[in-house]
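Issue: ligand-bound run for glutamine - logging full I/O for the record.

Environment: standard queue, default settings, no custom constraints.

Inputs:
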Amino acid sequence: MSTIKQLHKKLINKDITSLELTQKYFDKIEEKEKDLNAFISLSKKEAFKQAEKVDENLKKGKEIDLISGIPCALKDIICVKGGKTTAGSKMLENYTASYDATVTKKLKEKNAVIVGKTNCDEFACGSSTENSAFGITKNSYDLTRVPGGSSGGSAVAVASSEVAWALGTDTGGSVRQPASFCGIVGLKPTYGRISRYGVIAYASSLDQVGIMTKTTEDAAIVLTRIAGRDELDATSAHSSGRVYEDYLTGDLKGKKIGIPREYISDNLDDAIKNRFFEAVDKYKKCGAEIVDISLPNTEYALATYYIIAPAELSSNLARFDGVKYGTYPEKKDFKNIQDFYKEVRGEGFGAEIKRRVMIGTYTLSSGYYDAYYKKAQKVRGLIRKDFEEAYRKVDYIFTPTTPETAFKIGAKSDPVTSYLSDIYTITANLAGVPAISHPIGTIETDGIDLPIGGQLFGEWFDEEGILNASHTFEKNF
Ligand code: GLN
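Outputs:
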């Protein structure tokens, strides 16, 4: 397993060139993709061009950034100029982005080598990457299981070393849940920490770009390079200017970690509970004080999320009408404009998107807006308040990331069962706090050791705090 710093060292010591490194990763992709299907598209030409640039800089004796020359991947919901960006949807099968997302631009400026775009649930709606128009991505631990979602392609690409690291997006857990299922680190920063410009919107008040890596230090390194205020995203926050990797002291003394009792219900699987409390003990050994806390409105989080997210989705996806965006239909004889939209949207969207557009349109319609959407916003306020209260007592909050390990492909065809996958992750998006999932061990299932993650919530804009806690855990065990 190579971390960003290890690869960087090899590059500057001239043990390997960026071109060779890039080729090595493409070889790995070639070998594994027929089984995994983690990618929707590859950008070989551009990747090698970028690698060549890095090698030239190295030859000239120039200093290169930590992420320069190292292969990475982006979830196919993040725009890369001149490349396809499908959002996992048939609707955007032929869409070519005309500009770079701000995160893409920042990565290109640092000469990161973007090898391709990863598979995801359509418009990031899902928890298994089964809702993609481009096939299912398989979990590299067990090919009969899902990798989680919606950023399942990114998770598998990192877990199986097809790339050194990847970006995903997290609206309700889409970075952390697949990280838990694939045994890697997944960071969802505070809402606003990273620009969303050029990231196809799902639920704008919840969406955040997330980072998927093998180690916490790698996540910190990538965050430093993509965080910050962006004039093109009014919701982006002013830059902290922090070099996050410099905050990884490995010391947790004096820090208080809260365990919310609502997350450890009697229904929680015993195996998960055991792993989780072993992890709590490890945190204790790292010097943290463990405190029992309550987040009393947790039970309303799932219902609140599944009103707000579809409402915002129904509005954001209105642009995919075959005129502004979306595939123009082959059929030509339309009775009227409704007939045209029906054809385009009926053909272009998958079942889960149609379901959410209907739910969202319903909850926003006059007569129901107050009863559903407005009420959900009020409850969202209460959930945020729970976190404010908790942070008066503790520095971080620790929970299991998921109530289960990776499930079998096809096991959750009923949407509500699938929505339950997000039970521990969505509160961070509703409250806007940063959260990280890191591996806490494995659980034997059908003779295979499947990974499972633990999740740390931090205070708003305290990414360095949760990164240091996660790093300390990782380093000590
Ligand atoms: N599974 C959740 C959903 O379908 C979360 C998705 C996400 O975070 N993008 O909405």
